């Protein structure tokens, strides 16, 4: 690898799960009340993908990172406030819904189109990253379909670790059933990596990175073209927010093992 | 230290660095961003920090979102409407024009409230109004609301939603940058000039020691630093520490506001825009508010002032007793808590005004003494100070003049002095002094000040916050025997909990009947309503400066008042702080009973820059 990777991270926003989220029936189907005003966070799985991408790019000279996001333009702006100080990236944005009520097939098609439109992207060096799933709609199929549309057949799902070997080959560790890992080695790009949690913590905020990112982010947002994701043919029978179960007690002198044991008993009911 | 561990502190330059995104910064940045979009002004609005680019304006906000951790409010919104002449409240979640406003006197339905003789007389007087059909539920809706309190043509707002709405427009303009989750530790002061700000260190442990991923807080150097970080923000406080306060000014009056946003029960008759101000209960000194938003949602809560001469200013407990008052309970019974939070309010008004400008800096908003303590309003005033500073800054940019003290005095301070804001602040300046003598003199003093336009007040010395705190024995004299107080102290120390619940129950306050929806434990309010977060890698932001002072302290009001139960009894008498419970209200600093700094009359607690806090955008 002489001139680094071209890493494309697919990721968008989800509502901050700590807010009051209430499903309502909107003019175009299900939605969340005051959705445009609810604080947003980067989809946690996509966030891991972005941090891994930035880490890999920082260690591999000549690499570039693009973040490809579909979401309402105003909410993408809001999202950028919270992630643009984390790692360097170039934003590729499209103005469309990101509510969790979109169809994975349509979303994958739109993402693939956006990736194909990136100026300067060398497909032979491309690592297509994304989350293994989405916190707002846990279909877990979008990245696979993005890969198919782009003709990238080396696809790895639920990835926790990607290692560049001395000879440039890529070793990928995927989660599989039974708490085990599947370790694969491929010659190199292009490939699709749908990340699970990765191994990196959330990076600290770096204002300099934020200032640098903002120079490309604002033009990208202004250029964001509308994308049609109308979930044609889909209908939602019911929509509800997952119910929380809570039971609070203050314990000051209880050991971790006892706490864990009690939580297990509580979960088992 | 950074050099010793091999990590370089980074630095960058911008033109204007603003700290804190609240209404004041909203007004400042909205006005500035419009100028940045004005083709006629653009030639003057070019960056000196980054030549060739437009003016580089950044705003750093400590909280994790620009709409987190603030307050519900009723406001006349004069300044806000001047900025948005076509303002349509329906475009702002939880906003509505005021439709009905009442001042309500609450009597004590359970017999636990402290009612000095004058207040008992007021109870009797209001009972006669009840006979005239003006009262119900141990309360009287007063037939008249003074015009200085009335928010005629005003709005009820969720400041969280309002901030988010303003921020969205600012970001869409692309002219200014807003950065949440970015606590600023301190101003950078060189040769008595503020030359920028230093961010909080990241990748450190609770005591601030570097750990994995250590990144020293970046220095952001700016030609103008705008301190808009509120009444307890570290930038404003450190500027005051360096420059002191103007002669005769002091910051002795404070309050903590604690509230809930509630889904009102089905069938609640209150219309959107309804406003109740309450006085009289749970203690005479505690004021309440009830603002009805659209869609059956309300913001309601209490203010606990620093002149409430109590060693157990237990805001959450008092909030619950206030909600349980029959007048309030009549409307909220069967409702559900959506969110919860608390905030310190600077109540010294214009008398607490710091130096508004200096070389390289300007102060706006609540921390600049803009709150009107007579009308009980601060949001619109804060917004207006931001607009005034922006107008001054634009003038200076057009004239290519630097941000010196002299230039900022002319461009901003003179503009502020000549405005309605200043005129009204002067009327209000001594309006609350009567509360130093008690509840009734305080109410009388406010009335006189309001009617006479500030010419007549009940004046007297204003005590330092610590001087308002009696001992437990003094406070409960005649109610609880000293031996009972000793027993409660011992039980509290053994369980590591605050004293106030046990004391209040021993003094006659009933237990709160938790229902899991509206009446929940303090810890549940923290988790269900406040959704408090504390990101890793930041140090504790509440610091007990001299442990020996805490060890000797017999009156740890910091524990009793803590809005999130984040401060608890600790070993050797030094309280423990758990930042995962802190809502960043800042009540601990002005409730410390141990003065250690004679100059600024501050206590033994430092409230530093901290990340996280409330994650509720509805407050």
UniProtKB/TrEMBL annotation, chain A:
Family annotation (InterPro entries): ETF_a/b_N, Rossmann-like_a/b/a_fold
Query: Keywords, A to Z?
Result: Electron transport, Transport
**Superkingdom assignment:** Bacteria
User: Domain Electron transfer flavoprotein alpha/beta-subunit N-terminal, which positions?
Assistant: 39-202
> Is Calcium among this UniProt entry's keywords?
no
Q: List, alphabetically, the Gene3D superfamilies matched.
A: HUPs
Where, by residue number, does the polypeptide cross the bilayer? none
Q: Which Pfam families match?
A: ETF (PF01012)
The name of this protein is Electron transfer flavoprotein subunit beta
Key word rRNA-binding present:
no
